[in-house]
Amino acid sequence: MRKPSLRAYRIVSLFLLGCLLFNYPVLALFNVGATAAGVPVLYVYLFVAWGVTIALAAVVIEGGT
Amino acid sequence: MLQGWVIITVSFAYIGLLFAVAWFADKRAAAGRSIISNAWVYSLSLAVYATAWTFYGSVGRAATDGVGFLPIYIGPTLMMLLGWFVLRKMVRIVRLNRTTSLADFVASRYGKSALIGGLVTIIAVIGILPYISLQLKAVSNSFQILLGYPEIVMPPKVGSMVVMQDTAFYVALFMALFAIAFGTRQLDAAERHEGMVAAIAFESIVKLIAFLAVGSYVAFFMYDGLGDLFARAASRPDLGILMAPLGAAAGSYASWVWLTVLSMLAIIFLPRQFQVAVIENTDERHLRRAAWVFPLYMLAINIFVLPIAFGGVLHFPQGEVDADTFVLTLPMVQKAEGLALLVFIGGLSAATGMVIVETIALSTMICNDLVMPVLLRTRAFRLTEQRDLSSLLLDIRRAAIIALLMGGYFYYLLAGEAYALVSIGLISFAAVAQFAPAVIGGLYWKGGTRLGALAGLSAGFTVWVYTLLLPAFAKSGWLDAELVEQGPWGLELLRPTQLFGLAGLDQITHAMIWSMIANVGAYLIGSVVRRQSAAEHVQATLFVDVYQQTGEPGSAWRGATSASALQTLVGRFLGPARAAELFMSYARLRGVTSVDELEGDRDLVRFAELQLAGTIGAASAKTMVATVAQEEPLGLEEVMTIIDEASQVIAYSHRLEEKQQELESATLELKAANERLKELDRLKDDFISTVTHELRTPLTSIRAFSEILHDNPDLEGVERQRFLALVIKESERLTRLINQVLDLAKIESGLAEWRTAELDMREIVLESLNATSAIFKARGVQVEMRISPVTPRVMADRDRLMQVLLNLLSNAAKFCTPGSGRVELRLSCDASTVRVDVSDNGVGISAENQALIFEKFRQVGDTLTDKPSGTGLGLAICRRIVGHFGGRLWVESEPGRGSVFSFDLPAAAGAADPGSLAAGA
Fold first, then answer.
1. How far apart are the C-alpha atoms of B447 and B541, rounded to whole Å?
2. Contact, B626 vs B538, CB < 8 A?
3. Measured in whole angstroms, how far is the alpha carbon of residue B836 from the centre of its chain?
4. Contact (CB<8Å) B257/A39
5. Which residues of B touch A32 (CB under 8 A)?
6. Angle CA(B676)–CA(B679)–CA(B680) in degrees, nearest 5?
């Protein structure tokens, strides 16, 4: 049968990383009243983690094999 | 400048621009230079996901629970990662089967079942109506608010005015016309809408620009950057909760997770998402770009949601302005008229994009999977006999679009005021999530059956109606609120929002948990309760193993029909001209010049069915084709063929495995042969060194005695004589040794000459005794002889056999004690063998030496003290000689009690010689 490519494993790994990043308990770590440059850390964390996930997706999925 | 006519003019100008984009795209497509066949355009068209709900509603939700709106956009990000597996598989299946919609897809997977197609359509329509009403609400509200400029007035309550004066009604009407104009101008066999996709992608850019513009305006012009905005919000005690909003209310993390899951499913199963992501996909590889561009779009359109929400809350006194309208009202209150108008156009973009694609997708489903199957099966309509049905198909779709928007409008009247935008949208998300078990299961599990899909969809949908739709009706006052609060018949356990007492969850999470349990459970139970039919199994295999198919999927059509009948049939749905064109190109592909020459074989039937499937869906196409071509039920043979295809791969890998095993065993054999060669080589070396050693011993003696004779010319005569005798004896021994080595080498190499003849064993035995009698006499050994009177003849070489006997006898004489020795020679026989025993009463041979004496150069006894009295080759040669004639040579002995050397030979065919010989010698 077809053997999954390395790319496929990377994609699935990235998906699992995403599930971890945007879930309890990681979210709870940032769910505190503190702020970074005036912005609540939870908001900063969410958008940064989101951006990183997207960037990784671009590299993994569109990058060369 | 924000008078009503300006707003309307700009709106229509914008819509005109959309038409221009669509027209341009269609023209380019007709010229074969598609602009939507582009990964960027594809990614942007997926952004039809961001509707008026995103545009207005996200801010509304953010104003009440902070980041609670984000899972709706993070879920799709995660799902797009898996899109490379899931969506790609769907795209491949859709292309091979000419699937026209989600309902068609599900129906097709479960044996082209019209019932499933209809059920999916009903769920989708009922589930999506609230979502359409949401768009109407958003557009009409934003229009009315903008119309009130410069005042900020919330629109009047729904129902407080007559329908004919309600903006939402006209919005619905215009949107219906707009969707009809976009999606139902012509009937396409591929059900692709290039112009629509181009317009959607364009709208995605417009709504993003509008939202980013208002976001940066609020964050950087109204306030002094994000830090300033959040700092002010933090100083308000009532907003403190928004700084760390998760987990504050019970079940908050649970609702976060469920919203993520819900949106992951929605991004695939919303009819409009399925339409743009799967049906309108022109190239599977575009999914790669979309996997990150679309999430990036989501990130961009959400980045200013929180700043706008906080800006609105800070700016407006509590409760005066609906948070769902902050995006529009903030620029208005700042007198930024141009920006307000841009926001309105952005919201219009978001809403129209959604409505167009959603209604086109739904109308295709209604037409192909709900209306047509009924019409085609109802004999009263006699549809199967009509000539041209293509205009009827278009009319059904147009009517469906109008009905959908009117349905959306009435839902808006009914329940529109009771909920915020986001809540309405989530109800729709939960409805389409019910497709997930049947579709995902159907993609990866061949065992999922039609019965399972029917059961799962029905169960999930029923729970959805009970836990989400009923409470929505109750909330709007349409149903008695007691039903929700007390449960039906006062049964608290059955309260729709706390089913079986499951409390403490928000409504969506609660509904998702129960509906998924019911859905997945029923799907599994329904699938395992009964074996699936052959036709179902064919479709299941086509879907699950889609990557293993090389060309067109297999066909269940086996009966034959005529090409012209099929062309007429296709012509009735696609128009005769288009059908003639299609069949002509098919004929050219087959290498014939006209359609009449085509054979109406199963390939042609399959071709016709595919063309129809692209227009009226798989289930209806099957019904229609059945009217002209005989469909025979799929026999065991066909199923076996399908299974064969799958097992070919397995067989191939088995063969590979076998080859590998063969290779391995060959390697082992080679290794063994190599070992054997090495062993032989070693034996040869041993032999040579032994022979050399054995030759050297007599040579050394000869040389020593010769030197003595040479150096002492005056040696005494007696002494000289003795030395010369020794020299002669050693020379003889040397000669014997060399002869024997050569002899052995000859025998071993197979070069020895054998003069085989029929021999009388008695003769040879007697002769050998005569030859050795002198030796026995010299050593004083007594010899006895016992010869059986009747002995069969043997096939052997006379001289060689003599050699064996002489060797054995001389050995016996050698090892007997001189004087008292006794040697007995016995010749006996049975039916098939002749046996000779030579026994002595000599020293005997120990058990461990019995095997050794037959080896080359092995002599029993201490080689250091005993002078060797033989060459050590005699017995080795004897054994080979006996072996050559098919016999055995062996010894039985005990130390001190003498030994018996025996050999036997097979008797020659033919009678034994009669005769007798007396014993004694």
1. 10
2. no
3. 74
4. no
5. 244
6. 85
Q: Check residues B891 and A4 and name the one with the higher pLDDT.
A: B891
Backbone angles phi, psi at B904, to 5 degrees: -130, 160
Q: How many helices (H) and strands (E) does chain A have?
A: 3, 2
Q: Could you read off the pLDDT of B367-382 as tens digits, one per residue? A: 888 888 888 777 666 6
End-to-end Cα spacing for chain B:
152
Domain layout of chain A by residue ranges: 21-62
For strands B888-893 and B899-906, give the pairing.
antiparallel
Quote the CA–CA distance of B648 and B665 in Å, as a whole number. 25
List Cβ neighbours of B38 (8 Å cut-off, separation of 6 or more): B286
Cα A57 to Cα B297: distance, rounded to the nearest angstrom: 14
pLDDT at A49: 92
Which residues have C-beta within 8 Å of that of residue B119, sequence separation ≥ 6? Answer: B454, B457, B458, B461
Determine contact, residues B179/B360, Cβ cutoff 8 Å: yes
- B150: which 2 tokens? 């410069």
The DSSP secondary-structure symbol of B510 reads H
Q: Do A18 and B77 touch (CB under 8 A)?
A: yes
Contacts of residue B649 in chain A, CB cutoff 8 Å? 1
Strand ranges (E), B772-861: 782-787, 794-797, 822-829, 833-840
Q: Whose structure tokens read 């094999």? A: A65
Q: Which residues pair with B913 in a beta bridge?
A: B791
> Over the stretch B135-151, which tens digit does the pLDDT of each residue have?
888 888 888 888 877 77
Q: DSSP letters along B107-139, please?
A: HHHTTS-HHHHHHHHHHHHHHHHHHHHHHHHHH
Ramachandran angles phi, psi of B549, nearest 5°: -85, 140
In terms of phi and psi (left: phi > 0; alpha: psi -120 to 50; beta: otherwise), the region of B335 is: left
Chain B residues near any Cβ of chain A (below 8 Å) = 66-67, 70-71, 74, 77-78, 80-82, 84-85, 226-228, 230-231, 234, 240, 242-247, 253, 256-257, 260, 288-289, 291-292, 295-296, 299, 303, 306, 547, 649, 653
Gap between the Cα atoms of B138 and B53, Å rounded: 8
Q: What is the pLDDT of residue B680?
A: 84
The answer to whether residues B215 and B304 touch, using CB atoms and an 8 Å cutoff, is: yes
Taking the C-alpha atoms of residue B408 and residue B402, their distance in angstroms, rounded to an integer, is 10
Write the CA distances from B256 to A24, B62, B65, B303, B588, integer angstroms.
Answer: 9, 13, 11, 18, 57
- Asked if A5 is an interface residue toward chain B (Cβ–Cβ < 8 A), one would say no
Strands B822-829 and B782-787: parallel
Cβ-in-10-Å burial (0-12, 13-18, 19+) of A22 comes to: buried
- Tokens matching residue B870: 């033989």
Helix (H, G, I), strand (E, B) or coil at B616: helix
pLDDT tens by residue, B285-296: 888 888 899 999
- Residue B228 exposure: Cα atoms within 13 Å on the Cβ side: 9
Burial of B325 from C-beta contacts in 10 A (0-12 / 13-18 / 19+): buried
Residue B303 and residue B67 in contact, taking contact as beta carbons nearer than 8 Å: no
| Distances B247 to A18, A50, B536 between C-alpha atoms, Å | 20, 20, 47
For chain B, what percent of residues have pLDDT higher than 70? 86
**What's the one-letter identity of residue B21?**
V
Mean pLDDT over B697-709 rounds to 85
Phi and psi, residue B392, nearest 5°: -65, -40
Chain position carrying tokens 């007594």: B782
Q: What is the largest CA-CA distance in chain A?
A: 55
Structure token digits, residue B5: 């006519």
d(CA B761, CA B763): 5
Cis omega (within 30 of 0) for bond into A25: yes
Task: Give which of B40, B81, B89, B226 to mutate to test A binding, by max A Cβ within 10 Å.
Answer: B81
